[in-house]
Design the sequence.
């Protein structure tokens, strides 16, 4: 591995495509056949980068431990994982928000033993503690919408981007919690030892992010 | 709680096996002798301290302290750092010693881990404290001694980031007026959440000049040119003083010829809330976490009713070991003498002779080992004193 290669941890899927697009717009020479690859590690030597494709929830972990210098992670993951990394730039991609949702028949007054299902137990617990509400949190790994329908929990906390999934499952949003976008994060040591390349990367990305927002 | 497993240890507690111990010992030795050659005197303090005194002075989060009760019902803590106990000593037993005091320590400290239990909750810190000297030369000395320590422990590629918490505090106070707001910004800086910092700036009804000053703070990173840009965004006396100090310090480090591995980063805010002036962190290439940190704490000794300026650093031995350990190959032990009963005396004499030459010698009776070949493979030299013919076989 070249000393000066930057290792980038990225989630698979939508964030990856949008982030790679940003890098291209920031004039990093990333080959076009890049997107369809199914490999876990992809090299882009022309751009001086190496990409690790990870589960979204794991990106901050790779970066915290320094096996990746930088990464792209959703704010939801950052709040849930609370990793010791630099959060240097809001990439403003993959915008969505966290929300509390339930069946339309949900009535807070008739709740006996409040239960909330979520993929984000820490974030959920923190949110409800802040509200002074005591709830039981049920951690699920996916298909959260199922929980209220089959009676596992009264409410769920999940990411909402278009609201289609909630609607399709007959759920309604009760509360919008936090706006989420993807962040550019940096390992504390790489932030120092590879500062020239990383600062340059941040500046170039910041520029295209701002252009992108103005264009909208 | 579920039943404990047979070999389970309390969360974050680790054993140090011989090979690692040797490496750790070498590093400790290297740093201690470096500190000694700069005139620092070693000191030891008790593992247990009162929660009310050292525990609260230490600035480690309360939930990270290991607490227990003594027989009188006082709350004790396993010391979470060495700076607070040394401040206690400086303010009591060493109160009347001539200043400045130069002290060094090497001791385990204890911080409970809440997440990812595998992280060490007990780790050794090696460091120094320079008490009673408020000059910038003192800060310069501490930083250059830290760099010398890193080098003598075999870390060649490292970097030090230097900031000034007094500057950050002065700027935040000027712009934001009250401490509650300033605390929120300090917290973002401590969490290294610059996105949050910027969003918070947008949220507040600040003049565009003040907004720009806060954004500028995030850009104050780099070489000596940073000092001038920083001077432009503060107006208060404290802020200007902080910048003067930093400029002085930079000159001191220039005189030491050390500026190559140094970066100024004025947004650096560390977890120890007792820091008042210069703060710094050390990073080694190839390791994801800082190996050590330090700074000036001019108000800590006040808590022990003996106000005086002080500065110091601490290196984390576990991380240093990790940084160095990656490059070292396993070492073979020196010599093993395998003997049988008849020739014990002969082997003993040989062992004595070799030990005098500074070699480590293991004496092992033949009947005491199960697999002689596997056992002797751990040594550079193996000499057999076996049988009665007087010709001990030798293998290397």
Sequence:
């Amino acid at each position: 591995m070249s000393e000066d290669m930057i290792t980038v941890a990225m989630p698979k899927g939508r964030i990856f495509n949008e982030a790679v697009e940003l890098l291209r717009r920031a004039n990093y020479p990333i080959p076009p056949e890049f997107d369809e690859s199914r490999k876990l590690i992809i090299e882009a030597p022309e751009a001086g980068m190496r990409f690790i494709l990870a589960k979204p929830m794991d990106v901050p972990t790779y970066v915290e431990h320094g096996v990746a210098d930088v990464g792209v992670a959703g704010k939801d993951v950052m709040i849930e994982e609370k990793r010791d990394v630099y959060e240097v730039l809001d990439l403003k991609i993959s915008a969505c928000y966290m929300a509390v949702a339930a069946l339309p028949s949900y009535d807070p007054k008739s709740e006996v033993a409040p239960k909330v299902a979520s993929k984000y137990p820490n974030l959920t617990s923190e949110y409800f503690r802040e509200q002074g509400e005591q709830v039981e949190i049920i951690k699920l790994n996916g298909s959260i919408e199922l929980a209220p329908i089959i009676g596992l929990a009264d409410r769920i906390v999940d990411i909402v981007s278009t609201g289609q999934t909630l609607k399709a499952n007959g759920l309604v949003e009760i509360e919008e919690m936090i706006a989420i976008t993807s962040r550019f994060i940096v390992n504390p040591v790489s932030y120092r030892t590879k500062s020239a390349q990383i600062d340059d990367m941040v500046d170039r990305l910041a520029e295209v992010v701002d252009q992108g927002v103005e264009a909208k | 709680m579920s039943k404990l497993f047979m070999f389970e240890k309390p969360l974050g507690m680790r054993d140090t096996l011989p090979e690692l111990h040797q490496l750790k010992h070498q590093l400790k030795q290297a740093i201690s002798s470096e500190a000694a050659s700069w005139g620092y005197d070693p000191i030891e303090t008790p593992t247990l301290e009162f929660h009310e005194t050292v525990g609260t002075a230490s600035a480690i989060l309360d939930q990270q302290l290991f607490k227990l009760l003594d027989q009188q019902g006082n709350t004790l803590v396993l010391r979470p750092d060495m700076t607070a106990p040394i401040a206690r000593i400086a303010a009591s037993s060493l109160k009347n010693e001539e200043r400045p005091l130069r002290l060094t320590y090497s001791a385990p400290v204890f911080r409970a881990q809440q997440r990812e239990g595998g992280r060490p909750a007990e780790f050794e810190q090696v460091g120094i404290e320079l008490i009673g000297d408020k000059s910038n030369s003192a800060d310069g000395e501490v930083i250059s001694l830290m760099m010398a320590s890193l080098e003598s422990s075999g870390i060649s590629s490292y970097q030090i980031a230097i900031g000034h918490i007094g500057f950050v505090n002065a700027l935040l106070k000027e712009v934001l007026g009250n401490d509650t707001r300033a605390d929120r910004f300090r917290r973002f800086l401590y969490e290294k959440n610059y996105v949050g910092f910027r969003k918070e700036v947008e949220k507040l009804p600040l003049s565009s000049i003040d907004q720009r000053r806060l954004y500028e703070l995030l850009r104050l990173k780099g070489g000596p040119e940073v000092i001038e840009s920083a001077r432009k965004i503060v107006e208060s006396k404290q802020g200007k003083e902080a910048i003067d100090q930093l400029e002085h310090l930079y000159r001191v480090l220039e005189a030491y010829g050390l500026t190559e591995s140094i970066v100024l980063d004025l947004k650096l805010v560390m977890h120890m809330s007792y820091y008042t002036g210069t703060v710094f962190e050390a990073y080694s290439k190839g390791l994801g976490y800082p190996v050590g940190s330090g700074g000036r704490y001019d108000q800590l000794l006040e808590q022990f009713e003996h106000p005086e300026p002080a500065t110091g650093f601490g290196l984390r031995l576990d991380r240093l070991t990790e940084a160095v350990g990656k490059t070292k190959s396993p070492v073979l032990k020196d010599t093993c003498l395998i003997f049988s009963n008849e020739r014990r005396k002969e082997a003993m004499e040989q062992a004595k002779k070799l030990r005098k030459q500074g070699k480590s010698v293991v004496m092992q009776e033949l009947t005491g080992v199960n697999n002689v070949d596997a056992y002797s493979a751990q040594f550079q030299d193996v000499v057999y004193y076996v049988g009665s013919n007087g010709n001990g076989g030798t293998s290397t």
About this structure: Chain B touches chain A at residues 115, 157, 159, 161, 191-196, 198-199, 221, 263, 283-290 (CB under 8 Å). The radius of gyration of chain B is 26 Å. Chain B is about 40% helix and 20% strand.
